[in-house]
Amino acid sequence: MSVPHLDIRYINNETHILFGPFALFNLKMKKNGSLLEYLETISLGDIPSMLKSSVHNLHLMKYLIKETIKATSEEALIKELEKFAP
Questions:
Q1: Domain of 76?
Q2: Which of 8, 13, 32, 84 could form a Cys-Cys staple with 4, CB 3.0–4.6 A?
């Protein structure tokens, strides 16, 4: 999880500046994976503590949902980048 930021990455011996605009939550464990694979990693004993932490962090849950929805639109991504670095 993060907030808008710039990252310096070294890819194939070249320097790149990348923009990381959103905090995201994604159920996929792999780039081309299924949305269900996250559910396969959870045991029944994990559910009470997950629910408890969600209830105690509702502000964080709202923030993550809002940012995830925002990141589904390319237009929203560009607007956020323009706010961060006009």
A1: 5-84
A2: 84
The string of pLDDT tens digits covering residues 1-53 is 456 777 888 989 999 888 776 666 666 777 777 878 888 888 999 999 989 99
How many residues appear in the chain? 86
Dist. CA 24–CA 66, nearest whole Å:
9
Total of domains in the chain: 1
Residue 60 backbone dihedrals phi, psi, to 5 degrees: -70, -40
H helices of the chain, in order, are: 37-40, 47-56, 58-70, 74-84
pTM of the model: 0.50
Q: What is the DSSP letter of 19?
A: E
